[in-house]
Amino acid sequence: PPRREILTRDDFKIMTETLHSEGEIDRVEKEAIVDVLGFYQSKVKDVYIGLDKVVFLKDRGSKEEILNAAKKFGFTRYPVFKEGKVLGYINIFDLFYKSYKDWRELIRPILKVGINQDLSYVFKIFRSKKENIALVFKGRRPYGIITLQDIMREIIFSLTNF
Description:
The protein is of the alpha/beta class and about 160 residues long. Helices cover about 40% and strands about 20% of the residues.
């Protein structure tokens, strides 16, 4: 059965305000709670990486070119494209820990999310699918990528930005 929310966001804010006014939590603790609640209002569009900043790999590149890109840019996951279309992504570690004849066999499907989706929803999808990267779309047009690291950075920013 679906889980019911025991407290809504508004309930939580009222409870936080009450705890603060009664002296149970101080101003800093109250602001930290409110900032974390702000994460639940953040959208993919607030933190995604635009296509112009994404490092893509070509499907016709060699294994050496992939390893050179990994050394140069330091990422673990790279979207792979062919003729302007994203085929999926490759995890660099797969090159070392999986058996394959051609590295293209290691291309994994990439999740697709909307640019206006809630970050909290995308975070849940990442957890349930055990994925760390998604292609961001606005309508049918790709706009960029979002990673679990981007979402975690937003959560940490929410916690420390008060």
